[in-house]
Amino acid sequence: MRRRSVLVVLCCLCVAAPVVLTASAGTEASTTSVTPGDANPCVGTMERAANGLTVVSVQGMRFGDDGGKRKARLVALGPRGQIEWVHHREGTTWSYDVDPVDDGTLFVTATKYRGKEKPGRTVFYKLDPETGETVWSETAPFQDTHDADLLSDTEILVANMRATANVSGNRDRLLVYNRTTDEITWQWQFRDHYSREADIGGNYSEDWTHVNDVDAINETHYLASPRNFDMTILVNRTSGDVVWELGEPNSGEVMRKQHNPVYYESENDTSTVLVADSENNRIVEYARRDGDWQRTWRVGNASSLSWPRDADRLPNGNTLVGDSSNNRVLEVAPDGEVVWEVYTPWLVYDVERVQYGDEAGGPTIADQDAEGAVNIHGDAAFNATQQERCDAYLKNATRFEDIDGGSGGGNIVGDVFGGDSKDGADGDSDSDHGVNSGGFVRGLEYLAVAFVALGAIVLSVVGYHWYVGRQED
């Protein structure tokens, strides 16, 4: 009887060991349980289906009682908000700009950190959303870049902020970087056009302009957003002149600490700028009439938006909004009605409706005869419990081929398995091994479980023979 009891205990250990290991490997995910059969808890208002895929850049920063850094990720949403795929790149701490490219890939700007004492370096890469493969990647010597434009497959237009390391004074600038030759082929410095004595911007020796966005309007003109100047500017690449400015430093009336301005022209060629007026908690549009800027549209306020950081006008006249601190994406009609809403915790940065390419070129508010100030209405306004369920759902989304009727089977990219983003890489080399790192890491976990189980079996056999030998003695 004692011999049978020992054998049973040892066999139980064989079974329990892999179960315990598997459970411990998964406990870094949220404790909120969401199964594949559950309805998608991330969908809010859904009056109509979106036209195509929507990709959201999520920074993974949570505020509040359970605040802290989570993994940065890209989330692809289907027409009705179904999760098509979720992607986290190994070593990426902050995810910023994501741009659809004409060839069907996504051009991503992100930051990788190399420890507390080493500055963050910028990573540019092209992602194939159909296969999850990285077409190419480049780690560039620029700190914490928030936005870049792909001018060609080799040239990248960069908004270079915090350019103070190893230089005399501030070198915040716009530049064109050739990724194949590792050379800067053109640059435009803010200090040549703006003076620190004018009392604009932030700390001159640390983060003066915080230039967080640059767009190539055409081959010779670039739109830039020096956030700390509270304005957007248009730069002529050929002459180096500032063609015009929109905003007033230190005022905050026109815009305050804005993000992602987009340039449009109305049917009568009027220059128009749509901008996420972040610290005024609103989206605004300005038209340049007779040399002066006039605000033609305002939507949202502190009761409906929280630190919005992206806004794109869609061809149907609605505006796609990244409502950052509310952890959601909205499609808003000109009258403020929310017609499409999906939550993607935590902290949205950029959002693109993929089929329209980089910065969808929809009609201006003036061309829609919809000028005025409107309030956002018709949204779901998720509470904290619902956002927890959504977060858990996103973490589980990479584990299943088909989520809530979505077609994610071949498009599942990488892993977003909870936990803080604490990469130990020194960042001195860049490789593409991290694109499917989730499957790779999970494979190692299963391998470890197999070894432990095998070890337990060996121990049980050895223990059994030892026990039998003791009985015979």
Automatic annotation (TrEMBL):
Membrane spanning residue stretches: 446-467
Cited InterPro entries: 6-blade_b-propeller_TolB-like, Arylsulfate_ST, Arylsulfotransferase_bact
Name recorded for this polypeptide: Arylsulfotransferase family protein
Keywords: Membrane, Transmembrane, Transmembrane helix
Pfam families (alphabetical): Arylsulfotrans (PF05935)
Organism encoding this protein: Halorubellus litoreus
Keyword Nucleus appears in the UniProt entry: no
